[in-house]
TrEMBL record:
Coiled-coil ranges (or none): none
Membrane-spanning residues: 12-36, 42-60, 72-91, 160-185, 197-213, 219-236, 248-269, 275-292, 304-324, 336-361, 373-391, 439-459, 471-492, 504-523, 543-564
Keyword Ribonucleoprotein in record: no
Protein name as it appears in the record: Glycosyltransferase RgtA/B/C/D-like domain-containing protein
Annotated signal peptide: none
Originating organism: Microbispora bryophytorum subsp. camponoti
UniProt keyword annotations, A-Z: Membrane, Transmembrane, Transmembrane helix
Length: 693
C-alpha cells in the first residue's frame, strides 16, 4: 500500500506526462485523417481519443513516483497551474482578423474544424481570370487550391475547442494548454531538482510574460513546449523504471518519449533543431550497449526504443510539412536547408559514433585520464558563452540587407516600428544582439545568473565522469544548452516585443527556469553547510525564501505592464457581425490591399463565402475599374451576388453607395524594440461594402 507521499509523487508524475501523451495520440491519429480529408469530430473522437487513451495507459502503467513530496507541494503545483489557466482564460485574446501569426493559426483551425480537409477551394468566380488573386496573408496559392501557412499540429489541436464551443471555444484552448504546460515544466523540475521545488518552478514559469502571452492566443509554442518537456519527463520515467526494475524496464516510456519529441516537428518545423540533441543522445545510448570494455549503464537499453519513437514522430512531422505546408517550407528554405544539412551531419556522426563505439570508448578513457583540466574548462566555457551574449550589444550590430520581397516588407515594418518607438530610422537593423537582454527582461537577471552557475556545475560533473549520478540531466542540459545558444544567436523573428518573445517559449525560458531552480537548491545546500547557517534551519529557510523571491519577482514585475490587459477583444463579435451583414449568396471581391490581407481567409473560412482579391496594375494601389466590373459580371453569371470590400468608402465610390459593415475599436500588442513591453496600443479597423445589383 503506497504512502501518501508516494501517492502524491505518482500523481505529480502522471499529471506532468498526460498532456504530452494525449497530444501525441491526437496528432498521431489526426494527420492521417487530415490527409484523407476526414478530420471530422466523430472520426477524431474515436481514433484520436483512442490513440490518446492508449498512449496514456502505456505511459502511466506502473509509473514511478517523481519523488516523495509533502502534499502541500502537489497542491501548490496544481494551484499554480489552475490559477494560470483561469487567469489567462479570463484575459484571453481574440486574434481572428489576419494580421500576424495567431490569427493565421486561428483561421487554419476554423477551416479544419468546419471542413476537415485541405487544400481550401478557391470558389467559383465564373471561370479563371488574370485579375483574380486568391492568396493573402497567411495562406498560399497552389495548383490544387489554397494551403495555410505553418504546420498542421497546432490547428488540429485548436480545432477541438471549435468543435466543443465554436469560435469562443477555440479561443479558450490556449489558456488550457498554458495550464498544462505549467504542469509539464513543474514535472520536469520535480524529476531533476526534487518535488519540493516544483511549485517554485511552476510559479516562475507561469508569471513570465512570454508564457502569459502565448497562453492567451493561438500560437504554436505552447503545444511544442508540452511535447518537448513531456518527452523529457517520459524519458526520465523510463530511467526510473530501469532503476526500480519495474516490468517493461522503461522501454514503452522511452519509445513514447521519442514519439513526443518527433511530433514536435508537426507543430513547429523549428522543432527539428530542438530535437537534434535527442538524435545524438539516442545514438549514444545505443553505443553504450556496444561497449563491453566500459562499465555498462542500464540506460543503454533505452536507445533503440527512443530512436524508434523519434523516427516515427519525425516522419509524421516531415509528411505533414511536405504534403500540407510545402509553400511555407519553401519560404523558409534559406534557414531550413542549412538546418537539414546540420541534421544530416548529426545523423552521420551518430551512426559513425555508434559503429566505432568500442574503439572510441577505449581511446576516450585514455584521453580523459590525461585531461584533468577538462571539467573546469567545460564549466568556464559555459560562463564565457553567456558572458559573450551579455557583451554582444557593445561589439556587434546585427543587420540584414533587404533582398527578397519578404525582407523588404520586414525592413519597412521595422522602420515604422522605430518611428513609433522614437528611435532613429535604420530599416536594416534586426536587434538580435540584444537577445540576452530579452531573457533578462522575462526571467530576470538573478534567474539567468543562477541558471548559468547551475549549467556550469552540471557540465563540470558530467565531464568529470559523473554520468552515473547526473545522467538524468544529460539530455535536458543538451537540449536546453543547444537551443538556447542557437536561439540567442539568431532568433529569426521580427524583433518587436512581445511578439518576438515567443521565440523563447518552447525551450529557453522553461529551460532557464529549470536550471535556476536546480541552482537555487544546489546553492542553498552549500550555504546550509557554512558556519553561519549550520545547525540553524531557520536561517537556511530564510535564505531559500529570499532566493525564491529573487526568481519570482523580476519576471512578475515585467509582466505587470501587460498582464491585466487583454488584446484584440471584440474581434469575434465584429467578425460575426460582418458575416451577418453580407448576403448569404454573395461572392466577395476585395479591391483594397489591407482589407485583402486581413479578411480574405476570414470571409472564406468563417463566413463561408467565395472570396478573392482583385489584382492591381503595377505602381497603383487600386485595381482597374474595367477589371472589377468584368469580374462582377462573371460572378452574376454563376447566380451569386458580387460584393466589393475596401477599408474606405472612397475606394468604393466608383461602384455605388458603400455601407460600413465593421467598425472595430480595440487594443493590440505593443511593438517595442529596445525595452520590455509595458502596455498596449489602440487598433481601429473599418470595413466598407458595396453590393453590385
Amino acid at each position: 500500500m503506497p504512502s501518501e507521499r508516494e501517492a502524491a509523487g505518482r500523481a505529480l508524475a502522471a499529471v506532468s506526462v498526460v498532456p504530452a501523451l494525449a497530444l501525441s495520440g491526437w496528432l498521431l491519429a489526426g494527420l492521417p485523417l487530415l490527409l484523407l480529408g476526414s478530420f471530422r469530430p466523430l472520426p477524431m473522437a474515436l481514433l484520436g481519443g483512442a490513440a490518446a487513451l492508449l498512449l496514456c495507459a502505456a505511459g502511466l502503467r506502473r509509473l514511478p513516483a517523481t519523488a516523495t513530496p509533502h502534499r502541500w507541494a502537489m497542491a501548490a503545483t496544481l494551484a499554480v497551474a489552475l490559477g494560470s489557466g483561469v487567469f489567462n482564460g479570463l484575459l484571453h485574446g481574440e486574434q481572428l482578423i489576419v494580421r500576424r501569426d495567431p490569427s493565421t493559426y486561428a483561421q487554419y483551425a476554423v477551416w479544419l474544424a468546419r471542413h476537415g480537409s485541405l487544400p481550401i477551394p478557391v470558389g467559383d468566380f465564373g471561370g479563371p481570370d488574370s485579375a483574380l488573386r486568391f492568396d493573402s496573408m497567411g495562406v498560399y496559392m497552389t495548383g490544387g487550391g489554397i494551403v495555410p501557412q505553418f504546420m498542421a499540429g497546432s490547428p488540429m489541436t485548436y480545432a477541438i475547442g471549435h468543435w466543443l464551443g465554436g469560435v469562443p471555444g477555440l479561443l479558450l484552448v490556449p489558456p488550457v494548454l498554458g495550464a498544462l504546460a505549467v504542469l509539464t515544466v513543474a514535472g520536469t523540475a520535480a524529476r531533476l531538482a526534487g518535488a519540493r521545488w516544483a511549485p517554485l518552478a511552476a510559479l516562475v514559469f507561469a508569471v513570465s510574460l512570454p508564457i502569459l502571452y502565448t497562453s492567451r492566443t493561438t500560437f504554436s509554442e505552447i503545444p511544442s513546449l508540452i511535447l518537448l518537456f513531456g518527452g523529457m519527463n517520459l524519458l526520465l520515467d523510463a530511467r526510473a523504471r530501469l532503476g526500480a526494475a519495474l516490468p517493461g524496464a522503461g522501454f514503452p516510456s522511452a519509445a513514447l518519449a521519442g514519439l513526443s519529441f518527433g511530433l514536435a516537428l508537426l507543430v513547429r518545423i523549428d522543432g527539428l533543431r530542438d530535437v537534434l540533441p535527442v538524435l545524438a543522445f539516442a545514438g549514444m545510448l545505443i553505443a553504450l550497449r556496444r561497449t563491453p570494455r566500459v562499465r555498462p549503464l542500464p540506460e543503454g537499453r533505452l536507445g533503440v526504443p527512443l530512436l524508434t519513437g523519434l523516427v516515427v514522430g519525425g516522419l509524421w512531422g516531415f509528411a505533414g510539412g511536405y504534403v500540407l505546408a510545402r509553400p511555407y517550407l519553401k519560404y523558409l528554405s534559406g534557414s531550413l536547408i542549412p538546418l537539414l544539412a546540420i541534421c544530416a551531419v548529426v545523423v552521420a556522426l551518430t551512426v559513425a559514433g555508434t559503429t566505432l563505439a568500442p574503439w572510441i570508448a577505449v581511446r576516450g578513457r585514455r584521453l580523459l585520464r590525461g585531461a584533468g583540466w577538462l571539467p573546469n574548462a567545460a564549466a568556464v566555457l559555459v560562463v564565457l558563452v553567456m558572458a559573450g551574449f551579455a557583451v554582444r550589444p557593445w561589439v556587434q550590430t546585427v543587420r540584414r540587407d533587404a533582398v527578397t520581397p519578404e525582407d523588404r516588407l520586414t525592413a519597412d515594418f521595422i522602420e515604422k516600428t522605430q518611428v513609433a518607438n522614437g528611435l532613429a530610422k535604420d530599416m536594416s537593423r534586426l536587434y538580435y544582439e540584444h537577445s540576452l537582454d530579452w531573457v533578462f527582461w522575462y526571467v530576470g537577471i538573478p534567474a539567468v545568473v543562477l541558471a548559468t552557475v547551475a549549467a556550469a556545475v552540471l557540465v563540470r560533473r558530467l565531464t568529470r565522469g559523473g554520468l552515473t549520478e547526473e545522467f538524468g540531466w544529460l539530455l535536458p542540459l543538451a537540449v536546453i544548452g543547444w537551443t538556447t545558444v542557437t536561439t540567442l544567436w539568431r532568433p529569426a523573428i521580427t524583433p518587436d516585443h512581445p511578439f518576438a518573445s515567443r521565440r523563447l517559449v518552447p525551450i529557453v525560458i522553461p529551460g532557464l527556469v529549470l536550471l535556476a531552480v536546480w541552482g537555487l537548491r544546489w546553492l542553498s545546500r552549500r550555504i546550509a553547510r557554512t558556519r553561519w547557517f549550520a545547525g540553524r534551519p531557520g536561517r537556511s529557510r530564510a535564505a531559500v525564501a529570499a532566493g525564491a523571491l529573487l526568481l519570482a519577482v523580476p519576471p512578475a514585475i515585467t509582466s505587470i505592464g501587460t498582464a491585466f490587459t487583454p488584446v484584440n477583444r471584440g474581434e469575434a463579435a465584429a467578425v460575426a457581425g460582418l458575416c451577418r451583414g453580407i448576403p448569404a449568396n454573395a461572392s466577395v471581391l476585395i479591391v483594397e490591399r489591407v482589407t485583402g490581407d486581413r479578411l480574405t481567409q476570414v470571409l472564406r473560412g468563417q463566413c463561408g463565402l467565395p472570396t478573392a482579391r482583385v489584382v492591381y496594375p503595377q505602381k497603383s494601389d487600386v485595381p482597374l475599374r474595367a477589371d472589377v466590373l468584368r469580374l462582377a459580371e462573371a460572378v452574376r453569371r454563376t447566380g451569386r451576388v458580387p460584393v466589393l470590400f475596401a477599408a474606405e468608402p472612397e475606394q468604393l465610390m466608383a461602384y455605388g453607395p458603400a455601407t460600413r459593415v465593421m467598425s472595430l475599436h480595440t487594443r493590440q500588442d505593443e511593438r517595442s524594440l529596445v525595452d520590455p513591453p509595458n502596455g498596449t496600443w489602440s487598433l481601429t479597423i473599418d470595413v466598407w461594402m458595396t453590393e453590385l445589383t
